């Protein structure tokens, strides 16, 4: 068992590193050190930061080893330097960063060989390794978002996503009643996903698929961006100040729209989930459509609740880890897949594409669950509780399966849209619907 776990951890570390290498080797050194947007770090910062976290947690803490580079801890502490300031720091250059990354990984693998995985809570079930694997995969998604913001010729390539296999439209009724939200049993779940607790969610309707480009274009065509009625006061102020007129990366193309993705410009695909919208845009669309965004609890109930057994599944399709037939995850494709592309990934009640494709904005702020306990450090989640954040759920085409499950929680500022963010709508079902 323990040897299997070691092998699984080593394979996951290797898989994350292959993705990091692909994203950082796709561009030349001048591109690697450049800041492509004030919202993002230079890729070379992400690269060394991933290794620095691995050093802090696996080499020094779990392994009890001497520091590899104590002198650079401060440079790669995300709390010390906002992204906009990072290019001005005396960062490791590309060659130095790569050497550091390799050196840390050698030591981390040596620690993995020797550590007892049934010891203290930090290493039980390989948690610290799982945390570092998820951290690297999360930065790989961030680096993919940086790629989307860079100018110049395309450097990334992938197969197009699968076509729709069945039509998926309309909404699904989720019956009212209690369900189990969060988890006590997911070995690598982060502190903010814990503990499992019962939430009573009244009956509601939720879209069977995320809102598509075609539907979003209707909102634009109906003057949705010019009508304050649909926007919250904060949303409207932001829409005005930022001059929002369409999702990020969209531009007019004759009577329709085109978007630029990873350096390639093409007409929007009508039945693909809309991506690169901020919370305020999602909120305004929902109001225009006579709907609202789902709460986080509603989203999780739609994703996990199995009415036949009353229990919550790990994923909409069951407890088995994601396979390519279930969901558009892991940067296998560089766009969301059309609604109806993943019937094998639907929930028991028939809600599609909750996992993968686009992160989905929910109407909920980010807070700890009842009984929340910091583990292993407050800076992972707790310092963000109650801040100006909205929770996003489900992962995107840029998210790896290691950092995505039915309980996984992401959060960001409501104005952010450089992330792979979309949404679906919900509405109350009213009395008698359950
Ligand atoms: Fe980080």
TrEMBL record:
It comes from the Bacteria. Pathway: Amino-acid biosynthesis; ergothioneine biosynthesis. Residues 310-334 are annotated as: Disordered. Fe cation binds at residues 49, 135, 139. Residues 168-427 form the Sulfatase-modifying factor enzyme-like domain. Residues 12-143 form the DinB-like domain. Gamma-L-glutamyl-L-cysteine binds at residues 83-86, 412, 416. Gene3D superfamilies: dinb family like domain (1.20.120.450), paralog of FGE (formylglycine-generating enzyme) (3.90.1580.10). Belongs to the EgtB family. Catalyzes the oxidative sulfurization of hercynine (N-alpha,N-alpha,N-alpha-trimethyl-L-histidine) into hercynyl-gamma-L-glutamyl-L-cysteine sulfoxide, a step in the biosynthesis pathway of ergothioneine. This is Hercynine oxygenase. It comes from Actinoplanes digitatis. The lineage of its organism: Bacteria, Bacillati, Actinomycetota, Actinomycetes, Micromonosporales.
């Amino acid at each position: 068992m323990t040897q299997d776990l070691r092998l699984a951890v080593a394979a996951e570390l290797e898989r994350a590193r292959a993705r990091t290498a692909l994203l950082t080797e796709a561009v030349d050194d001048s591109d690697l050190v450049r800041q492509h947007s004030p919202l993002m770090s230079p890729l070379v910062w992400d690269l060394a930061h991933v290794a620095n976290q691995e050093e802090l947690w696996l080499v020094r803490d779990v392994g009890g080893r001497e520091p590899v580079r104590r002198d650079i801890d401060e440079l790669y502490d995300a709390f010390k330097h906002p992204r906009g300031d990072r290019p001005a720091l005396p960062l490791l250059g590309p060659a130095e960063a790569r050497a550091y990354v390799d050196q840390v990984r050698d030591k981390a693998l040596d620690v993995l060989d020797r550590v007892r995985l049934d010891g203290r809570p930090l290493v039980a079930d390989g948690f610290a390794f799982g945390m570092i694997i998820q951290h690297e995969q999360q930065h790989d998604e961030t680096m993919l978002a940086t790629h989307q913001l860079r100018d110049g010729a395309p450097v990334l390539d992938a197969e197009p996503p699968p076509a729709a296999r069945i039509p998926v439209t309309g909404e699904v009724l989720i019956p009212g009643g209690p369900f189990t939200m969060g988890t006590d049993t997911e070995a690598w779940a982060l502190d903010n996903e814990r503990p499992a607790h019962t939430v009573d969610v009244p009956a509601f309707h939720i879209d069977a698929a995320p809102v598509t480009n075609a539907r979003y274009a209707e909102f634009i065509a109906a003057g949705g961006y010019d009508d304050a009625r649909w926007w919250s006061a904060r949303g409207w102020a932001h829409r005005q100040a930022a001059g929002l007129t369409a999702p990020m990366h969209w531009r007019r193309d004759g009577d329709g729209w085109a978007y630029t993705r990873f350096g390639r410009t093409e007409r929007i695909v009508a039945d693909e989930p809309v991506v690169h919208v901020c919370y305020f845009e999602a909120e305004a669309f929902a109001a225009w459509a006579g709907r609202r965004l789902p709460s986080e609890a509603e989203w999780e109930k739609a994703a996990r609740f199995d009415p036949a057994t009353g229990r919550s599944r790990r994923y909409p399709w069951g407890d088995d880890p994601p396979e390519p037939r279930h969901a558009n995850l892991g940067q296998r494709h560089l766009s969301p897949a059309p609604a109806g592309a993943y019937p094998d990934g639907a929930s028991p009640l028939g809600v599609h594409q909750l996992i993968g494709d686009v992160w989905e904005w929910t109407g909920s702020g980010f807070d700890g669950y009842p009984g929340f306990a910091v583990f292993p450090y407050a800076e992972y989640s707790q310092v963000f509780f109650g801040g100006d954040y909205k929770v996003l759920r489900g992962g995107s085409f840029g998210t790896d399966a290691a950092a995505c499950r039915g309980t996984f929680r992401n959060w960001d500022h409501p104005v952010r849209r450089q992330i792979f963010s979309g949404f679906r709508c919900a509405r109350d079902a009213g009395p008698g619907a359950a």
